[in-house]
Structure formats: C-alpha cells, structure tokens
TrEMBL record, chains A, B:
Alphabetically ordered keywords of this record: DNA-binding, Transcription, Transcription regulation
Name the record gives this protein: GntR family transcriptional regulator
Residue intervals of the HTH gntR-type domain: 5-72
Pfam families named among the record's database cross-references: FCD (PF07729), GntR (PF00392)
InterPro entries, alphabetized: GntR_C (IPR011711), TF_FadR/GntR_C (IPR008920), Tscrpt_reg_HTH_GntR (IPR000524), WH-like_DNA-bd_sf (IPR036388), WH_DNA-bd_sf (IPR036390)
Domain of life: Bacteria
Cross-referenced Gene3D superfamilies: GntR ligand-binding domain-like, Winged helix-like DNA-binding domain superfamily/Winged helix DNA-binding domain
Native source species: Sulfitobacter porphyrae
Amino acid sequence: MYKSATRSFPVYDSLRQAIIEQALKPGVKLPEDSIGETFGVSRTTVRNALVRLDAEGLVDLQPNRGASVAVPTIEEAHDIFEMRQCLEREVMQRLCAMDPKPIVKALRAHLAEENKYLHVDTTRSIRLAGEFHILLAELTGSKILANYVNEIVSRCSLIMARFAQAHSAKCGLDEHTEIIAAIADRDAERAIARMHRHLHGVQDRALLKPDDAEKNNVSDILARYVTPND
Amino acid sequence: MYKSATRSFPVYDSLRQAIIEQALKPGVKLPEDSIGETFGVSRTTVRNALVRLDAEGLVDLQPNRGASVAVPTIEEAHDIFEMRQCLEREVMQRLCAMDPKPIVKALRAHLAEENKYLHVDTTRSIRLAGEFHILLAELTGSKILANYVNEIVSRCSLIMARFAQAHSAKCGLDEHTEIIAAIADRDAERAIARMHRHLHGVQDRALLKPDDAEKNNVSDILARYVTPND
DNA sequence: AAGTTATTTATTGTATTCAATCATTGTATC
DNA sequence: GATACAATGATTGAATACAATAAATAACTT
C-alpha cells in the first residue's frame, strides 16, 4: 500500500522499526524539526511519515501539539490482544485448509533463523519472533489479512514496550514448533488451540510492569536507524 | 485516530464520503490542484488527506503520478469479502455474549431509520445499510474491531462501485431484521449463519458488472460534498 | 504515413516561509 | 510562598515557491 519511491519512506520505515524494537518508547515526543535534521529532509516529508504512522496506530498525532509514540492504555491493550486472537485464529483456519508442504517448509526455514539468533542477538530475536506471525499470515495468500496481522503485531510490540518486563517479549520457540506441527497435520482445531495458548502466554507476560515513561532523546536513538546511502 | 481539528479533515471526509457513495468511481484521478481549489486549501493540505485515504486503501497513491480512486481487482474483491466475513463473524460472536437489551434497542432504532428512507432516498439508504454493520461492530465495545469493520465496509462499497449493477448495493432489510432477532435470542450460531448468508448475498450481487470506467470531472462531483461552514 | 525524438506543458515531490498555537519562564499581586 | 497573568520561545499548521518527473504535443526522420 505504501510505495517506497519517496523520501518520506525511509523516515516512516526507520521510525516504525525503532518503535517496534522498543528503542522509541511509548510517550516519547517526535518533533518534526529534529527528525527532519536526522534524516536530512524537510518537515513536510517527516509529517508525511507521521501521518501514516498515526493511521496505523503507532503514533499519536495531536493537533497543534505534535506527534509522539502512542501510549496504549491497558484497555486498548486487551482490545488489541483480543483482536489478534481473532485474526490469528483465522490464519490457522485458512492454513490448515491448504497444501501444507510449501507452508511448513517456509515456516521451518524461519524457525531455523529464529533459533540461530536466540541468546545471540536479542533485538533480532524479538523481531524474528514477531515476523513468524506475519509470515504465517502471508502464507495464507490474503494481502489484507497479512496487512492486519502485520499492523496488530506491531501494536502488540508497543504494548509490550509499555507494560512488559524487559526481554519478556520473546515468543516461546517451542510453541512456534508446536504450531507448525499442527499445520503439517492439517489439524485446524489443534493449531487454533496452540496458537490461542501461545498468544495468551505472550499477553500474560505483557501485562505486568507499571510504566516508567522515561524521557529519551529522540535524535540520538534515531541516528542509529538512518540507513546510510552515500 | 484522526483528529478533526485540522484543515485537511474536511477534505479527507468529503473525499471519503464521495468514494463510499460511489460518486467518485474507481479509477477517477484526484489531482491535488483542482481538489485544493474546490475546498479553498493548498495542495499541502489536500496531500495530507490523500495520504490517509491511501493508507486506508480507498485511494491509490502512485509516486510521481498522483492519486486516484482505488480500483480493486476481482482477486482483491474476494479477499476483502472473505476478510469481512471473518470480522463480522467475530462481531456476532461477541454481541451474542453480551446483554442483548441495549444492543437490540440501538439496532432497532437504526433499522427504523433504514426503513424510513427505503425507496425515498437511495443514496442515504445505501449509506444506512452500510452503517448498520458499522453500528454492530461499535456495539461490541471494541474500538479496533469497529475500526476494521468500518474500513472494510468502505472498501466493499468501492468494490460494488466497480463491479455491481447500479443500485444492487442495498442490503436486504429483512436480513438485517433476522440478524437482530438472533442477537436478541443470544443465539450465536444462528446470528453467524444469518450474517454469513447476508454477506454472501451482498457479495454475489457485487460481482457482476464489467467495468465502465467513465471519466468524470472530480471538481463538479466534489463540489456537492463541500460542507459549507461560513 | 508511421514511428521516433525533442519540446512543451501539466502535475507531483519537497523545501522554504510565514502565521498560529502551545509550552515555558518570569513577573507581579495577593 | 502560591497563584494569576504576561511575555517569550519553541513547535506546529498550512501556503507558497521551486525542482523534478511524467504526460502531451510538436517536430523530425526514414
């Protein structure tokens, strides 16, 4: 839906990544000026990216008082997790009605990747765990379902940044393995049950920590996310 | 998610309305200049609205060649309708687990409205039919579910504009009545079945007409959608 | 005359500019 | 010392301006 051939795309993408990886924590202000400087673009361009992120629910764009990383309430957190259950149930349902061979192959390949970076690169590990769910959705072949799952997984990352203990964001790899097995057997009921329990575990671990909305300097953090192209 | 206290909001809102009501048909170009003139705002402001509509899937924003009303393919159409089935099934499920009294009351009130304008004001009638589904979603109390349903109902309007016979967009009121009855009985299975059949009917009627992408003048059409506030 | 290239025109991408709003600090008053 | 108000500074809202790209037209070649 988003064509990357614009200057605002890298801004959008880096901000998104930074939010998902919890480098930009909920509540952090996102001033157009400083972000523009970081990326070497004008405020117009930054604003474009912010509008998009607002539409996706990752950023909160208040009139006349600018943008900040969205701060999900505990109610929204429950709401989002419930929706996630619904979407991923649908994913399981559909995958179990398809030819499991290519699906399982792709999933196993991803799982190997997850294993590779477990206990090695935490940030990457967390990202891969999320991408496992996005891959599942993509394998259904439904663009719109994949989009929704993508969006909601991102928002769950945000929730974990707000409420969860540090590093509790990692999905259990065993659980991913179990889910793949159920799909391989085309056992929809089991796949749904496994997924449900898995997500419930993630949710449980997510809703513990009281918030410490520590202020961080945006520019310093973002500088690490600029992809150098010269 | 979208704060209305900006100049771009009326532009966004009018465009959205015009697309949903099928006054702006799929494929119609949306030049920033002429739209800006129509609303008395600058291109910057128009662009803001277009970016948002692109994010919602109602507008297609191609780099360097501007915006046009999205033209869903037949594959996307099926994809979207399938997703809609999933979402509205969830709505039924949730509503049937709640206290039916206030829900049924709100739904009956809406149905009365639908009846009132049936055979009187076609445009309004079509809009109300869509809003029935949005109301259902809102009554679950889930913001995010309501958002998704809202979005997907809009995109279904787009699909009907592209493929359906003129005026086949109207939902059967009897079917709405049946759905309400099932909710009143807290009979989830029946509610889901009714909704499923209902949507299937809508989908069937939607996928007939070959496209006649007649060119239309945007400004003329949009002029009717400008809400005068002075 | 058909096709190709050059030129012009229209439209978009982005930066810059100015006005409006909000946040903050300082000052006065009680 | 606390509160209310005023002035300042910082940040956003939105229009304008300029550069870059694409579309349309004209001129040219074969």
